[in-house]
Specification:
Pfam families: Complex1_51K (PF01512), NADH_4Fe-4S (PF10589)
Helix content: 40-55%
Shape: globular
Family: Belongs to the complex I 51 kDa subunit family.
CATH architecture of the largest domain: 3-Layer(aba) Sandwich
Radius of gyration: 24 Å
Cofactor: [4Fe-4S] cluster; FMN
Strand order of the largest sheet: 2-1-3-4-5
GO molecular function: 4 iron, 4 sulfur cluster binding; FMN binding; metal ion binding; NADH dehydrogenase (ubiquinone) activity
Keywords: 4Fe-4S, Iron, Iron-sulfur, Metal-binding
């Protein structure tokens, strides 16, 4: 009887290692996580019908679970039944996370047994032109926030003449409520390696870097071990997958600056400089790392490529809506009953995500809002929860999907405080290069403080006008998205929750 327990860092943080120690005498395999985080530590057991689950477990629950397995497992109070039949998981459309919770992170045999390196084999067979065309035709867009078509980047870098080109993976996952990159790097590292190898041999790059935030020590260690295994087995090095082309890569560790999630600041950091945003043009595809053509994508974008090559561009396009094609791993966090990862095709609504998957607030109090897209994302009120999760649909309501993080809040959250926090966050994390972000964010904190302290109606009205003008200046005058998008949480808080600022609705809508 085989048992499976996640080695994901969140599962370990809530006691998975202690559960593993209590199961030391059993045939236990440590796998990636399913992303059903409210059930971790989640123990899965092989049966004739499939894997059944128990969770969330503590080490003290282990003896009773083992006893139940000798008789009627469903009688145990923590029994969940067949894991893949759980509504939260069964209704998902997992492409990127198809192996999540099933394979061992560093087992090449597990990876290959579940479709691993089929995409690389296909890319080697059809050549660079057709591979770049497949990525373009799939409609894949960058999953880091800007949602720029990936295929255009690939064709640009491929067509640019240079003696050296680079692939850079932006794994500096710094947005609040996001963890999909970490989950994938810790749980399925060969998928990212395969995606980068395909990119390298397609665009003519011979070297790559994965820029990982220092707060992810387990992901860093797992990636480094996976690179050694991939290199030893011919998936990296002088003859990638038998292609006759060279591509190798390494992990670089960031020092915790949020601004290094912006691609040009990340490139400066990789070059050993302070991470400061570069003016564009030139774009990184033409003049990036060390002044050479560089393909920069985040983890989820690069990890989508192997499936597109293995299954075909049309297979990928069959998921999603409008120009938002494929699937997106949404991450539920904050005041939520069932936090975790939900991978679905674009087009489901925020209400489905928060209420059907998440189960509403963990506190049981009414929903007040959800911040979508990280600390610079807009606060979306329940009145707009029926908006489809689609890049264009969200842009239409003054919001963004970003990296897919969704942080839920109940009716006790003070939105004026959150607006002030957004400005303060921007002030602290600004690289300092452009005046609107460097100075404007600090002035934003001061304006909000004056607004909240204003003794009368006229004083509040004056500060609201000033705050809105400042948001416009930040949005349209900043060099990058840090200053440019700090207006989203501030303006949405002001628009939908004026009472938190001591305002009447008419004042906030002026």
């Amino acid at each position: 009887m085989s048992l499976y327990l996640s080695c994901d860092s969140l599962a370990r943080a809530v006691g998975a290692d202690a559960v593993a120690s209590a199961l030391a005498s059993q045939d236990l395999q440590r796998t990636s996580s399913r992303g059903l985080y409210w059930l971790e530590p989640l123990l899965e057991v092989d049966t004739a019908q499939g894997r059944i689950g128990f969770g969330p477990l503590t080490a003290s629950d282990v003896p009773s679970v083992l006893d139940a397995l000798q008789g009627e497992p469903s009688s145990h109070p923590l029994a969940l039944g067949l894991v893949e039949e759980l509504p939260y998981l069964k209704s998902q459309q997992r492409l990127l996370f198809a192996r999540a919770g099933i394979t061992r992170p560093l087992s090449l045999d597990d990876y290959r047994a579940h479709g691993g390196f089929e995409g690389l084999t296909r890319a080697v067979t059809i050549g660079g032109d057709e591979t770049a065309t497949a990525v373009f035709d799939s409609g894949l867009r960058g999953r880091g926030g800007a949602a720029f078509p990936a295929g255009i980047k690939w064709r640009t870098v491929r067509a640019t003449q240079a003696t050296q080109k680079y692939i850079v993976c932006n794994a500096d996952e710094g947005d609040s409520g996001t963890f999909a990159d970490r989950m994938l790097m810790e749980g399925d590292p060969f998928l990212l390696i395969e995606g980068m190898a395909i990119a390298g041999i397609t665009v003519g790059a011979s070297y790559g870097y994965i820029y990982v935030r220092s707060e992810y020590p387990q992901a860093i260690a797992t990636l480094n071990e996976a690179l050694v295994i991939a290199r030893t087995n011919g998936y990296l090095g002088a003859n990638v997958g038998g292609s006759g082309l060279a591509f190798d890569m390494e992990v670089r560790v960031g020092a915790g600056a949020y601004i290094c999630g912006e691609e040009t600041a990340l490139l400066d950091s990789l070059e050993g400089k302070r991470g400061i945003v570069r003016a564009k043009p030139p774009i990184p595809a033409l003049k990036g790392l060390f002044g050479l053509p560089t393909l920069v994508h985040n983890v989820l974008t690069l990890a989508s490529v192997p499936l597109i090559l293995a299954k075909g561009a049309q297979f990928y396009r069959d998921y999603g809506m409008g120009r938002s094609l494929g699937t997106m791993p949404f991450q539920l966090a904050g005041n939520i009953r069932r936090g975790g990862l939900v991978e679905r095709a674009f087009g489901l609504t925020l209400r489905e995500l928060v209420e059907d998957y998440g189960g509403g607030t963990a506190s049981g109090r009414p929903l007040k809002a959800a911040q979508v897209g990280g600390p610079l994302g807009a606060w979306v009120p329940p009145s707009q929860f029926d908006t489809p999760l689609d890049y264009e649909a969200f842009a239409g309501i003054g919001a963004m999907l970003g990296h897919g993080g969704v942080v839920v809040a109940d009716d006790t959250l003070d939105m004026a405080h959150m607006a002030r926090f957004a400005m303060q966050f921007c002030a602290e994390e600004s690289c300092g290069k452009c005046t609107p972000c460097r100075i404007g964010s600090t002035r934003g904190v001061e304006v909000i403080d004056r607004l909240l302290a204003a003794p009368d109606q006229n004083g509040r009205d004056e500060q609201v006008i000033l705050l809105k003008d400042l948001c416009d200046t930040l949005q349209y005058g900043s060099l990058c998205a840090l200053g440019g998008m700090v207006s989203f949480p501030v303006a949405s808080a002001l628009k939908y929750f004026p009472a938190d600022f001591g305002l009447q609705s008419s004042e906030a809508d002026q």
